[in-house]
Amino acid sequence: MIHQRKYMRLHGWDYSSPGCYFVTICVKNKECFLADVVNGKVVPNEFGKIVESRWEWLRNQYRYLELDAFVVMPNHVHGLVKIIPNSVVTGRDLSLQTIVEKIKSLSDIIGAFKTTSSKDIHLAGFLNFYWQRSFYEKIIRFEQEANAVCQYIRNNSLNWEQDEENPGKIIL
User: Fold this and answer.
1) Cα–Cα distance measured from residue 46 to residue 35, given in angstroms and rounded to the nearest whole number
2) Closest by alpha carbon to 149, among 158, 140, 160, 137?
3) CA-CA distance, 54 to 109, in Å (whole number)?
4) pLDDT at 118
5) Which residues is 66 bridged to in the sheet?
6) How many domains in the chain?
7) Domain membership flag for residue 28
């Protein structure tokens, strides 16, 4: 029997159009390779710091991205990503011309993040590091929802003991 992959994206949605997305990216097999949580605070290790720097790299690589809250957890990351419309650029040679930059889809952007962070982690000596295939996303449609997601991301480490992604989860 051939296993068919479940398509996780909203059918008919253009993931390169302006929008706001809550993304979760997990380490393969949910291994805790990126950080520790000590007294409710995330302490990223060398590999977690690479992941943080590669997340920031996205901001410079894709001018149409706005990155909001982000956290590296022991075996996954959460981030709020906004794809914003291209802006008008003015200058001596570009007066009032719109620079049209091809906007990549959210999957392409996350793929670039996963590829570059994995490569850097491998170069740092951890050759058996891999991200889980694909990623989770939720389309955020309202500012109030975006604010709640940002709060969730910022407070995620406080809930690590009960987190579904925590292999040592304490069941109450």
Assistant:
1) 8
2) 140
3) 11
4) 99
5) 82
6) 1
7) yes
Tens digits of per-residue pLDDT, 43-84?
Answer: 999 999 999 999 999 999 999 999 999 999 999 999 999 999
Residues of the chain short of pLDDT 70, as ranges, are: 1-10, 86-100, 170-172
Domain span at residue 48?
A: 19-156
- Say if 3 falls within a structural domain: no
pLDDT attached to residue 97: 47
Q: Can you tell me which residue has the tokens 């996954």?
A: 76
Torsion angles phi and psi, residue 85, rounded to 5: -65, 150
Picking from 102, 22, 33, the residue whose alpha carbon sits closest to that of residue 62 is 102
CA distance 61 to 57: 6
Residue 164 inside a domain? The answer is no
Q: Whole-prediction pTM value?
A: 0.85
Query: SS3 for the chain, per residue?
Result: CCCCCCCCCCCCCCCCCCEEEEEEEEEHHHCCCCEEEECCEEEECHHHHHHHHHHHHHHHHCCCEEEEEEEECCCEEEEEEEECCCCEECCCCCCCEECCCCCCCHHHHHHHHHHHHHHHHHHCCCCCCCECCCCEEEEECCHHHHHHHHHHHHHHHHHHHHCCCCCCCCCC
Asked whether residue 56 is domain-assigned, the answer is: yes
Report the CATH number that the domain containing residue 119 is assigned in CATH.
Answer: 3.30.70.1290
